[in-house]
Amino acid sequence: MDKIFIVLGAIVVTYVLVKLLKRKTLHPHIPFKYNFGKRRDTFAKVLELLHENNAKVLLETGTSRNGLKNTKGDGAATIVFGLWAKKNSAKLYSVDIDPISVQESEKEVKNQNLSEYVNVVLSDSVTYLKDFEQNIDFLYLDSYDYSEKDEDIQKKSQEHHLNEFKAIENKLHDKTVVLIDDCKLKGGGKGRLVIDYMLKNNWKILMDKYQVLLVKSN
Ligand SMILES: C[S@@+](CC[C@H](N)C(=O)[O-])C[C@H]1O[C@@H](n2cnc3c(N)ncnc32)[C@H](O)[C@@H]1O
Question: Who's near 56: CB < 8 A, 6+ residues apart?
């Protein structure tokens, strides 16, 4: 009987250890319990570049509609980059067309004491970007939801992300970092058209993972 308990104990300990080792965290920036999965490495690289570049103006399209609850599914970028903005006296603008997404994102922004550093705006992203007046140090494109099944939605999502980029292109500079979400998906993901366009216009890919990270190629 004792042997059974020892074997069971060893299995449980091994299981917990494997789970902990596989956890893709952004610790110490975000508490260890949050797992960022397929976005962890690209988020970590962006945070490193923001430091190097002393970034001040960050802009995200598509806000964290689940606050910090869905770090693995949606990414929770508003909170990840909002916390960075607070520590580094920067400002994050996060635009979303859905009032519920805005409301839920704002709830977590307040909960994390980030209201001074994060501005969640209710608007269509392309309209908002066209009127944005500051130069941007970090641009994160993650709005119009993509579908792996519906080709019409794929096309609309890809065109929307391309239109976002074109709307803000003249506010980007030599050190601007651009991150595009949901790229490694059937049909090319959100980034298919915008990445093609950027590669033809003096940008290069720095990381090509689930998310694609681009910088100016000079
Ligand atoms: C995947 S979520 C964004 C996740 C968020 N970036 C994060 O890291 O947690 C996509 C969001 O894009 C928003 N969206 C869809 N179409 C949009 C548009 N035309 N303009 C602005 N936001 C849009 C949706 O309302 C939704 O909240």
Answer: 89, 90, 91, 137
